[in-house]
Amino acid sequence: MSSETNVVTVTLRTLHRMHRQLSDLNEQLERGPRLLAAQEVNIDRSAKQLAEAEGQAKAVRMSIDKKQLQLDSGETGVQRRRLQLQQANDNREYQALKEQIAADEMANSVLADEILEAMEKMDLMTQKVAEAKAILDRAKQDAETLARDFQEKEPKVRGEIERIQAEAKASEAELPSDFRLLYNRLVKGRGEDALAPVVGEYCGGCNHHIPVNIISALMLATPIQCKSCGRLLYLPEHYEAH
User: How far is CA 217 from CA 13, 95, 146, 233, in A?
Assistant: First the structure.
């Protein structure tokens, strides 16, 4: 392999590695806001679930209070009729009051059972509210942690991007003009997917077969694109054709 070929090959290897690093770093920058947005959606969903649980608990609480008022009123009515029973003027009035007392006591018993059942439901709803609140609190804490981590990480990532971009620019200057023109056009539109190593006799990007004469041309520092995927091909370190 000639000196020029060696320079081109090493430079393309280095540039491809740099573009992979840049792609990964840019993905880190994009992933942070995506995760934060997803967490905000999770917070909104958790907040709605908490509000729904609180609404259900409030409805059960109001139902209990309403039934308790009815029960208090019913028990007061029974006490009043018991006094009336003691003052009944005749047997017919006495029997009517006894029947009414029995009916009221039955209604009060049903109400008491309904209140007990509602109170058991209220216990479950209180637990559900507590669980929903805990989930919302965790979601908020996770969002705060994500935001804090991203704020700490972002300047470092951007600094690393600037460093690699500067190194890439210096490496690009080492490419022959014919390589550089093609390289710049491909990288502008495709980033790291602009380049691919030859693996054996295949394109490392799309696995398309690379003929031996094309590999020979690469060894002579000729700019070659894969006919299948259009990537700019280069030979990897310690390359051996299979």
Answer: 17, 117, 50, 11
Q: Using one digit for the tens of pLDDT, what is the confidence trace for 130-181?
A: 999 999 999 999 999 999 999 999 999 999 999 999 999 999 999 988 889 9
CB 147 within 8 A of CB 34: no
232-234 and 195-199 beta bridge pairing: parallel
Query: What's residue 1's pLDDT?
Result: 47
Q: Shortest CA distance to 103 belongs to which of 123, 74, 126, 129?
A: 74
Contact indicator for 101, 80 with CB cutoff of 8 Å: no
pTM for this model (two decimals)? 0.71
Q: Tens of pLDDT along 194-211?
A: 999 999 899 999 999 999
Contact indicator for 64, 115 with CB cutoff of 8 Å: yes
Half-sphere exposure of 18 (CA within 13 A, CB side): 20
The answer on pLDDT for 5 being more than 70 is: no
Whether 122 contacts 57, CB under 8 Å: yes
CB 94 within 8 A of CB 85: yes
Which distant-in-sequence residues (6+ apart) come within 8 Å of 161 by Cβ? 22, 25, 26, 29
